Amino acid sequence: MFVFFWRRRVRRELETETIIKKLKVEIGEMVTALNGTTERNIALLESQIRVIHEQIDKASKVAGVLKREQEKQETVSQVYSSLARSKPLTLDVEVPGTENPVIDFESLPIRDKALVLHRKGDSPESIASRLDMSRGEIELIISLHEGRPQN
């Protein structure tokens, strides 16, 4: 009987050691699986961080371009404001049969050329093509000189 209890006790201890070994193996496998998952998650996060850095760089470049464009617009605005405040054009259109001083058209500033051609009756399109400017620029010069709103 003693032998029977002793065997039983040894079996239980062996079962306990077997169970512990199985648990250790299973825990080791779980740790390995968690490490693999963690590595994948870290790789995904690093990828997303790279994408965010690229987007920030792109946004910085766009902001720089927008700032330069804004500065250009401010410069253009100042030029047009100074055109609006400039002295009125005092050139008269040459009428046949009257005595007018001869004015060298090519030596005139572009603004004055545009206004002279406008006074002669040329259309904004023809003035723009002759002076190598856009129609909008010609219309702006004319409207600023005449003191009326631009169309």
Question: What does the model show?
Answer:
By secondary structure, this protein is an all-alpha fold. The chain has two domains: 1-85; 88-151, no CATH class. The chain is 75% helix and 0% strand. It is built from four helices and no strands. α3 packs across α4 (135-146). The protein is rod-shaped, with a radius of gyration of 44 Å. The mean pLDDT is 83.
* Global morphology: rod-shaped
Instruction: Work out the count of structural domains.
Output: 2
Tally of separate helices: 4
Find the structural class using helix and strand composition: mainly alpha
Mean pLDDT: 83
Largest sheet: none
Strand percentage lies at under 5%
H/E topology pattern = HHHH
Q: Count the strands?
A: 0
- Please state the CA-atom Rg, rounded to the nearest Å: 44 Å
Low-confidence stretches: none
**Percent of residues in helices:** over 70%
Give the CA-CA distance, first to last residue: 117 Å
How would you summarize this macromolecular structure in one to three sentences?
It is built from 4 helices and no strands. By secondary structure, it is mainly α.
